[in-house]
Amino acid sequence: RRKRDDLTPEQLAAMLRTRLRFYLPGSRLPTRVALARQYRVSTYVSRRAVELLGAEGLVRLGSPGGVYITAKAQTAGTIHTIHVLGRSDANMYFHEQLFLRELDRARAAFGMRLRTTILEEPVLTADLPDRLAGRDDPTQIGWVLLDVVPSPDVAAHWRSRAIPMVMVNEETDLGLHTVRPDCRQAIFRATEHLILLGHRRIAYAGGDTNLSWIARARYEGFQMAIRRHGLETQAESIDLYTRQLPHRVRPERIVEFLNRSDRPTALVVYSQKDGAEVLRACDAVGVAVPGQISIISGGVPRQDCPPQIIDRLTRFSEGPIAEQARLTVELFANYFNHHQPVHLIQPIEFIDRGSTAPPAMV
């Protein structure tokens, strides 16, 4: 059988650590040849993996030539701490702050500790896990990259050492595990919903697409729907936001948009909170929704929006942040069962609250 070239000795050792917990101390480990055959690796990889386990005191050489499991192996291969690497509070979006709170709740169910390191300058170096782990083994800590992205070389170094890494709210081909909402599909479906209602003049209100993967993905979803239905010349992107982080909708920009004589018949809004702000502005200036303009949003559920406003907003919700946190913790709980990258994408939900209608009403 063809050997698996994608498993390094460090990755095989990480997989074996979990397996060792299910053997009694003194049990004999399968031979290096047997391990190589079972995991479809070369005997060099299996031999080096066993040597790494021996250096950690998880196995010992016995007589005659066997390898035996030690009592220390009973606690090996488990992730005892989740360590979040994120941006400073001043540069942290609402959904990131909520994710941290929900992650704290989710990890408690698994008896894991939670640490957070704020990166004033989000530069991720190859030795960062070792420096932050201190005396702990960085391969027994679950590292969460919260809207920060390593370089391909750094990601490759972490993979080679089997350091547990999960990227949240990012879409990359770095070979790391990811947990993210389906932002692109949410805005695509929101835009297509308006097109199928008959709208041809549609505007998109979103933030700076250079700031995050989420911002780029949502705008790409809008563009995908527009192109699919041939409406490139009848759609526009408008900026209702401040340039500071986190983004805030500027009420005067909303009013300026609503008072335009050539105002589009429908508006796709970046997030649910911003959609609620647009609805509030429509009420203030007397623009009827959906009688004079249809409004729809994507985004994650928001608890800080007034119910009387958010309950009027039709939206494609990207999934609860509590669910995102739970998926992240469960991925770490089962981490050593996954030597290939796992990509968990939260499903979206259509919630019709009556803020969209055919343009014939306009």
Oligomer: single chain
How much is the radius of gyration in Å?
Answer: 25 Å
Total strands: the figure is 14
Shape: elongated
Mean pLDDT: 85
pLDDT < 50 stretches: none
What proportion of the residues form beta strands (DSSP E)?
Answer: 15-25%
Portion in helices: 25-40%
Succession of helices and strands: HHHEEEHEHEHEEHEHEHEHEHEHEE
Please outline the major beta sheet. Answer: 6 strands, parallel
How many individual helices?
12
The SS-based structural class is alpha/beta
Distance between the termini: 67 Å
Widest β-sheet, arrangement of strands: 4-3-5-6-7-13
Layout of SSEs?
Layout: H1 9-20, H2 32-39, H3 43-55, E1 59-61, E2 67-69, E3 81-87, H4 94-108, E4 113-119, H5 128-133, E5 141-146, H6 152-160, E6 165-168, E7 177-181, H7 183-197, E8 202-205, H8 213-228, E9 235-238, H9 251-258, E10 266-269, H10 272-285, E11 294-297, H11 307-310, E12 314-317, H12 321-333, E13 343-346, E14 349-351
Task: Give a quick set of tags describing it.
alpha/beta, 17% strand, elongated, 12 helices, 6-stranded mixed β-sheet, 362 residues, 6-stranded parallel β-sheet
Provide a brief overview of the structure:
The chain has 362 residues and is α/β, with parallel strands linked by helices. It contains twelve helices and 14 strands.
